[in-house]
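Entry for adenosine-5'-triphosphate complex. Fields follow.
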Amino acid sequence: MSSNTFKIAVMPGDGIGIEVMDACIEVLNAATKKVGGPGLDLQHVNGGAAYYRDHGTDLPDESFEAARNADAILFGAMGLPDVRKVDGTEINPQLDLRFGLELYAGVRPVRVLPGAPTPLGDPRAQEIDLVLIRENTEGLFADIRKPRTESTEQAEDRCLITRKGTERVVEYAFKLAASRPRTRTDARRVTCVDKANVLHSMAFFRSVFDDVKARHPDVDADYGYVDAMALNLVKRPWDYDVMVMENLLGDILSDLTAGIVGGLGMAPSGDIGDAHGLFQPSHGSAPDIAGKGLANPVAMFLSASMMLTWLGTGHGEDQCLEAGALIEKAVADAFVNAALKPSEFGGPHGTADITKAVLNEI
Ligand code: ATP
């Protein structure tokens, strides 16, 4: 048995966040039971748009504290289109968690599961194995929690790039490139994605990237302007390894990379800092399909797998690593053995079918 019990703050949130979280807990429990550990103390934590509507706050102080005191945070999705704050802004407690817990690296692994359909016709799509890293705490999102200006004539947003904020996320990217297991290539490379040819802030991001690069001679580095990268990630995504970029650029390109591996329901993520980690599917609460049993829970399962791997690496806990690997393999095997075609791809399989197929492989 595992010696450790990890405290997990479970924040299902809204819409399909609740549905994929329920499915995920079944999968987590099955995987840790099979491996014989680790112990998981799952603590339900309130927050989200429905909670705001009923209680006037989207993230009560005790929820933030529960997240801060947990070993890891497992997050569904938060936000509902008809629930807005008084100033008209969306309910976005995940941003408060990102800023408040300094979850500076938004880590989005991108892989096509064996047998899973991809909109790219090229057979090399099966070789896609990249990680997109989004800086999570500054860039064009730096001021979004400040009150909006009331002018009817103009508006502006600041793109804040600091040396400290850039160094830590680029350092994360190089360390990941040096250490991550790869399925299909030996390349170790970090691509700096920016718009350094036009914007001062992005030129600064690139200059800090170069400073960090000099400390990692074992890893290759190159650059891509974000517009060209949007093209390249559709034409030849299999050529990339790890890429790092400013907040808004990462927000946009990570939806693109989710698209090339089948959809948002296939795209896991981790928001990771030096002291905390939050793991959530890349999608939102998807109100258009909520309550219909159509949500693809794969991104949630793979996010839970990332959480276990992160805990296992950080705490030297082999059973976490084994349970994380088991979930990842079970998902891949379920696509092959049960010929899964999620409704997201126009197929017949909803949340319950996919969950059952994955549980069968554990
Ligand atoms: P947010 O702004 O909170 O990121 P969003 O506006 O990007 O949310 P999502 O909630 O992510 O929107 O949904 C975008 C589209 O993708 C919707 O049509 C939704 O139904 C679909 N979608 C998202 N997640 C899934 C999923 N897990 N399974 C199936 N379809 C999904």
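NOTE: Residues 230 and 252 are 9 Å apart (CA to CA).
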